[in-house]
Amino acid sequence: MRADMLSTILNELNGSSADIEASAIISTDGLTMASALPEGFDEDRVGAMSAAMLSLGDRTASELGRGTLDQVLIKGESGYVLMAYAGSESVLTILAKTNAKLGLIFLDVKRAAEQVANLI
Questions:
Q1: What is the pTM of this model?
Q2: For the chain, give me the number of helices (H) and strands (E)?
Q3: How confident is the model over 19-70, as pLDDT tens digits?
């Protein structure tokens, strides 16, 4: 039941912008709770990397006096990876295209993360 609701949130998020290519909800210990990933992506690997990056981001923000971590953004030549907390127990990870309108994506991700946090 909860997994279906999480999948619905991801499907709505992916449908909200043509710039969002994939998304997943991952527990802070790296387990995938729901995903809308393209064929060939390893859910376990995405989960482990997301949890590790957010943990490192937490520590970096704290050590460098930037306050509580809100999100981690990675830009590569083929697009973006955005990770944001969805409550204290989960992470919302999305993959976006190179020319993505990040402002709109940040808003959509924030809304989806709040929905996830309310469910979990």
A1: 0.89
A2: 3, 5
A3: 999 999 999 888 999 999 888 888 899 999 998 999 999 999 999 999 999 8
Give dist(CA 45, CA 63) in Å, integer. Answer: 27
The count of domains in the chain is: 1
Residue with tokens 């909860």: 2
Answer for the pair 37, 99: CB distance below 8 angstroms, yes or no. Answer: no
Question: Mean per-residue pLDDT for 78-107?
Answer: 93
CB of 104 closer than 8 Å to CB of 96:
no
- Please say whether the beta carbons of 57 and 98 come within 8 A: no
Residue 15: which CATH number?
3.30.450.30
Structural domain span for residue 108:
2-119
> Are 52 and 110 a contacting pair, CB within 8 Å?
no
Buried b (16+ CB within 10 A) or exposed e, 17-44: bebbbbbbbbebebebbbbbbeeeeeee
Residue type, 87: G
Region of residue 4 (left: phi > 0; alpha: psi -120 to 50; beta: else): alpha
